[in-house]
Amino acid sequence: MGRKDELAGRMAEAVLKRLVGRRLIETRDETRARDAVRRILSENLLAEEKLEADARALMQDHAKEIRDSAYDYKRLFTLVKGKLARERGFTL
Fold first, then answer.
1. Measured at the alpha carbon of residue 74, what is the angle toward residues 91 and 6, in degrees to the nearest 5?
2. C-alpha of 84 from chain center
3. CA dihedral angle for residue 6, residue 86, residue 89, residue 10, rounded to 10 degrees
4. Rounded to an integer, what distance in angstroms lies between the CA atom of residue 55 and that of residue 27?
5. What is the dihedral of CA 31, 34, 36, 37, to 10 degrees?
6. Which of 19, 22, 49, 59 has the fewest CB atoms nearer than 10 Å to its CB?
7. What is the per-residue DSSP string for 28-81?
8. Rounded to an integer, what distance in angstroms lies between the CA atom of residue 7 and that of residue 11?
9. How far apart are CA 55 and CA 52, in angstroms?
């Protein structure tokens, strides 16, 4: 199991435990519900990873301009990532 899948599994366990504990959902098969939540979280983590890679690639295309400007790389990366997320309907 990859690191992202492991993280998604731990997150899914915590989310399902809270939802069931607070009686916000009822489930007959917790294992199946946990797997569904894990799959959704894994897909979301992969989508965010792709978004970050696309933001890095876009910034790499403009590396010289970025170096010559007074912009902070991390701040600019956050702005680019946010813009790409909005364009793709992805919530960060």
1. 50
2. 13
3. 10
4. 39
5. 180
6. 22
7. S-HHHHHHHHHHHHHHHHHHHHHHHHHHHHHHHHTHHHHHHSS--HHHHHHHHH
8. 6
9. 5
* Residue 30 near residue 20 (C-beta atoms within 8 A): yes
CA separation for the pair 77, 55 (Å, rounded): 7
- Is the pTM higher than 0.85? The answer reads no
Average of per-residue pLDDT across 7-11: 94
Structural contact between residues 44 and 7, judged by C-beta atoms closer than 8 angstroms: no
| CB-count exposure of residue 12 (10 Å: 0-12, 13-18, 19+) | buried
Mind listing the pLDDT tens digit for each residue in 44-63? 999 999 999 999 999 999 88
**All residues at 6 or more sequence positions from 53 whose CB lies less than 8 Å from its CB, including other chains:** none
Distance of CA 27 to the CA centre of its chain: 26
